Amino acid sequence: MLRQIPAVHRLLEAPGIPALRERVGHAVVKESAEEMLASLRDEIRATAAADGAATRDGRPLPDLSLEALARRLEEAVARRLAPRLRPVINATGVVLHTNLGRAPLSAAAIRAMVEVAGRYSNLEMDLATGERGSRHSLVDDLLRKLTGAEAAMVVNNNAAAVLLALSALAAGRQVIVSRGELVEIGGSFRIPEVMAQSGAGLVEVGTTNKTRAADYRRAVGPDTALFLKVHTSNYRIIGFTEEVPLTELVAMGRELGLPVMYDLGSGVLAGRFAAGLGDEPNVREAVAAGADLVTFSGDKLLGGPQAGIIAGRGDLVELCRRHPLARALRIDKLTLAALEATLKLYLDGALALREVPVLRMLATPPEELARRAEHLAAVLRRRLGGRARVTCQPGASRSGGGSLPGLDLPTTLVSVEPQGLSVDLLAGALRLGDPPVLARIAGDHLLLDPRTLLPGEDEAVAEAVVRAFDPQGHSARG
């Protein structure tokens, strides 16, 4: 059997392979051929039965004809060149799923990225004067209009925004923070560690559940640079609690000549016109309350690309712009294009609610979700027959992405209880499908939430579930 395996150079001349080499490159095909043939030899050595006609578990040995090996090589090359970063279908009901890339972009943002991706652009060119410009000027006016701030700039995420602001305003000095606001966001982003990296000294005041204005005032000293307020966007402390409202902290800062920085995190620009946002603080309201600097994310409740936005007093934003870290943390032209297009949607609240996917998902009425769930369940019952018990049940979606903690969004879930198949195997087959589908598991049930399905994905999910039950395509279409 081993002697029947052709040499690499012979396989590279098999029908169809020269064209494949021309299309993807000789080196890729040759390396794939070497790995495939080596794997084939190992397979034969490990599994061939004594009679050389079958494997030890009774399966036939692989076809070693040149044509069959050429097909295997084409498949191996396709796997090697398949994108590592792939679109997936999110049927979990977690709107801002960090592991799935958080906010899906609007059609306008996608168009804007495509338009500048393959061409030169005026990223840092003032077309009116022909002189060098600033990339921050591309969105500065939009951010000022939408937030009410004097100035704004953008870096690559909110952690970077916090790091840059603290480095520019408080390095070598002290920053006063409530103990109840020393948060950790996903990926071990901890406020104390970021502050240490910035060179600022942390001064903790109050207790985990109670911090009063007097605690801040007592902690002020000659080395105090600013007050930092952090929105606990991924958890809530309830019960016997007390915190200093932003307006009160701002008033104290004015009295003592200390700026107030507010790490808002989740980045709500939508205002009260958007359902599903609960009592999440709004960026514009934070600026209006007097916060000297506000930092927030672009890819959370704003619904744009990953970015960290600093908005506030012009002199403080300018200090951030001129800091050496600003260049290391700056964003690229694709992010700026997507962010600009997203921000323009917010110039009209109704347009943003309709076009920004995150806002649309959060605001989807429960009756619409129930209708979509019933339709999906009916399709699956018809296609799967007795292979699964498919029902609809009430449930809750989540915002995710470290925002709106504890806020349950009513939804209707499609429950698939496979018969004769492990629910873990079913979920695994969905993840490995094309496209991959991510769902929830509860006991022996696979749960699909229509809230996070984009337009057109309801049908794709039904097809994916059927394929997962029968990957060979012999589905019960009844």
Summarize the structure.
The protein is built from 19 helices and 16 strands.
For the structure shown, list the relevant keywords.
478 residues, alpha/beta, seven-stranded mixed sheet, five-stranded mixed sheet, 17% strand
Using the coordinates above, name the CATH class of the largest domain: Alpha Beta
DSSP E strands, number: 16
Overall mean confidence score, pLDDT? 90
Kindly report the spatial arrangement of strands forming the biggest sheet: 3-11-10-9-8-4-7
Q: By CATH's scheme, which homologous superfamily of the largest domain applies?
A: Type I PLP-dependent aspartate aminotransferase-like (Major domain)
**Helicity, as a percent range:** 40-55%
CATH architecture of the largest domain: 3-Layer(aba) Sandwich
- The separation of the N and C termini measures 44 Å
| Coarse shape | globular
Radius of gyration: 28 Å
Residues in β-strands, percent: 15-25%
Total domain count: 3
Biggest β-sheet, characterized?
Answer: 7 strands, mixed
Using the coordinates shown, work out and report the CATH topology of the largest domain: Aspartate Aminotransferase, domain 2
Helix run count: 19
The low-confidence runs, each spanning 5 or more residues with pLDDT under 50, are 473-478
- How does the helix and strand content classify structurally? alpha/beta
